[in-house]
Specification:
One of its GO terms (molecular function) is catalytic activity. InterPro entries: Endo/exonu/phosph_ase_sf, Endo/exonuclease/phosphatase, GPI-anchor_lipid_remodeler. This is Endonuclease/exonuclease/phosphatase domain-containing protein. Residues 5-278 form the Endonuclease/exonuclease/phosphatase domain. The chain is of the alpha+beta class and 292 residues long. It has one domain: Deoxyribonuclease I, Chain A. Helix content is 18%, strand content 33%. The protein is built from seven helices and 14 strands. The strands form three sheets. It has a six-stranded mixed β-sheet. Helix 3 runs parallel beside helix 5.
Length: 292
């Protein structure tokens, strides 16, 4: 059984306005694969802390990668730290080796009246005991459907384009360039993160089809499945944020290759977590049964 979690950690800031990375890691519990969003380093608001390094130190048995969506100069009064970058983005931690990592910079529309940031999706290939698995951490734009839909379409495209794209390196082996065999690019994919849309949104309909009356969702064969629905829950069960701007809604999700849906064993939200403005989500997947 593979235990997976996702948490938008709001750069470490909890509901009590305290910055507490150990609290966040404690709320995640024992997980095999973890997707984090809003992780940063060298930012004044979070004390110029290198959050990826600190989180990794709290989970010493996990491999990890961090990829920024935002990468900008961060002024410092320390003359020894002239080349300091504010990096803000996503992180993946894994109990097993991360064979490859690709940072997909998502489409962005420049706006005039709203602040927003460059968003990204980390696509990793994990060497699980049951074979390689694509595991992704994503953070989509918060402003509107208009800014998110191109990002949703790219995310959906990644599901199907693995064979065309291949891994980060490959083709004919050339050990003068790469000291190991090219890794496999598996078809199976899990993407977790803060997607900033609810099941009532047009983005959800884009991925899972519209509602055909009493027949329910017109889910497309070969597309994504919602892990919470696969676990037997309603689409909008378990809100993951309570914000004045959008209300109490579920905007953090776990989507996976439709083939894996029958092997989802549980999905839940920790409604009591206080380490961020979001609630962490948890999914268990019987990948061994899926590969049997």
């Amino acid at each position: 059984m593979i235990r997976m979690a996702s948490y938008n950690i709001q750069y470490g800031k909890g509901k009590d306005d305290l910055f507490d990375l150990p609290r966040i890691v404690g709320e995640l519990g024992e997980q095999d694969l973890i997707a984090l969003q809003e992780v940063e380093r060298n930012c004044p608001r979070s004390g110029h802390v290198d959050q990826p390094e600190e989180i990794a130190a709290l989970l010493p048995d996990h491999y990890w990668v961090f990829c920024p969506g935002v990468d900008a100069h961060s002024p410092s009064n320390d003359p020894k730290a002239r080349h300091t970058r504010w990096e803000y983005g996503n992180m993946v931690l894994s109990r097993w080796p991360i064979l490859t990592c690709t940072n997909h910079v998502l489409p962005r529309l420049a706006l005039v009246n709203q602040f927003h940031q460059q968003r990204a999706l980390i696509e990793t290939v994990i060497a699980t005991p049951e074979g390689p698995l694509r595991f992704c951490s994503v953070h989509l734009d918060h402003v509107s459907t208009d800014t998110r839909m191109p990002q949703v379409e790219l995310m959906e495209g990644l599901l199907h384009s693995h064979a065309i794209r291949g891994s980060g390196y490959g083709g004919a082996p050339d050990f003068s360039w790469a000291p190991m065999d090219p890794p496999e690019m598996p078809a199976d994919m899990v993407v977790m993160g803060d997607m900033n849309f609810s099941p009532a949104g047009a983005e959800y309909t884009r991925l899972f089809g519209d509602i055909a009356g009493s027949l329910g969702r017109t889910n497309r064969a070969g597309g994504f499945a919602d892990a919470f629905v696969a676990a037997g829950h309603a689409e909008d069960a378990f809100p993951t944020i309570d914000a004045a701007r959008i209300g109490q809604v579920k905007i953090d999700h776990c989507f996976l290759s439709a083939r894996l849906a029958p092997f989802v064993r549980s999905a839940s939200v920790d409604a009591d977590a206080v380490g961020s403005d979001h609630q962490p989500i948890f999914v268990s997947l019987d990948l061994a049964a899926a590969q049997a």
